[in-house]
Amino acid sequence: MTPIAQTQDQAGQGIVPVAPRILCVGTHHKTGTIWMQQVFKALAAALDLPKFSMWKRALKRIPDQGFVLGTNWDSAFPADLMARDDVLFLHIIRDPRDVLLSGARYHETAPATKEDWLHEPRADFDGLTYQQKLLSIADPEERILFEMEHKHAETLQQMLDWDYANPNSIEWRYEDLIADTDCALFRAALTRLGLSPDQVETGVRAFWDNSLFGGMADPAQRKAVVAGHVSSGAARQWPDRMSRRVAQAYAERFGADLITLGYEKDTKWLEAL
User: Fold this and answer.
1) 113: CB partners within 8 A, 6+ apart
2) What are phi and psi of 126, to 5 degrees?
3) What is the pLDDT of residue 6?
4) What is the mean pLDDT of residues 163-174?
5) Which position has the higher pLDDT, 216 or 150?
6) How do the domains of the chain map onto residue ranges?
7) CA–CA dist 101, 114 (Å, integer)
């Protein structure tokens, strides 16, 4: 795998433009998925664009002409789609340590209507669901360590499996996107897609209206689906919220992966806690 630091910059500069017709948005669990769901739902409605969940069977339903929006919230796009030259991917990752803390917190309360996998009895947990197993652990640090070895490990592996060398992919970090208050990153992506200036501004408005620094800044104005997933949304929460015990375990288990993903250069981050 190619480290992110060696791939294109986040605005896609230095890449020979293609003529994309299909815009695919890929996230991972707790990397801004609900945010992007709301943004691109609004964008599809505003521009009257067809929108598909991009799994293998969806490829047969893609129209032959016109712009198309596609999403995959695990970034597990079919290989046939990844190989096409008329697709532009927007791929989002987040500091895995924040993903861990956000996931552990969310999985304690998420209802079956939002996360059905949390509420399915599992033989490896002696018939308990994931949420029941998590809540059966009394010690808060032990709950986070449990999360780290289960759902988090799966999510992190998905981030590692992504092809960061794909020239038709714009790589976004959640930390940069949540600071994109002038919408420069989002505007650049829609411009590269080839949308007209008016369409780009319509898309930028959808992005702003559904961002925690924009239309969703007031918690009282947030949609229920957003409020149920978001407690803060801030970047780099882990330095203040991760205990040294958990951090040490994380460094031993996933320290190399933080370096691969470009979030650390070494393990000296432990000294900052």
Assistant:
1) none
2) 55, 40
3) 35
4) 94
5) 150
6) 4-94+163-227
7) 19
Q: Residues near 53 by Cβ (< 8 Å), separated by ≥ 6?
A: 70, 71, 72
Residues in the chain: 273
| Cross-strand bridge partners of residue 243 | none
Residue 254's nearest CA partner among 237, 240, 238, 241 is 238
State how far Cα 62 lies from the chain centre: 24
Q: Do 75 and 27 touch, CB atoms closer than 8 A? A: yes
Whether the Cβ atoms of residue 23 and residue 90 lie closer than 8 Å to each other: yes
- Write out the two tokens for 110: 């998420």
Q: Is the pLDDT of residue 15 over 50?
A: no
Q: What is the pLDDT of residues 135-148, one digit of tens each?
A: 999 999 999 999 99
| pTM (predicted TM-score) | 0.86
Give the residue-averaged pLDDT of 168-193.
93
- Residue 227 burial (10 A CB sphere; 0-12, 13-18, 19+): middle
Q: Are 123 and 58 in contact (CB under 8 A)?
A: no
CATH code 1.10.10 for 4-94+163-227: no
The pair of structure tokens assigned to 163 is 């092809």
Average pLDDT, the chain: 88
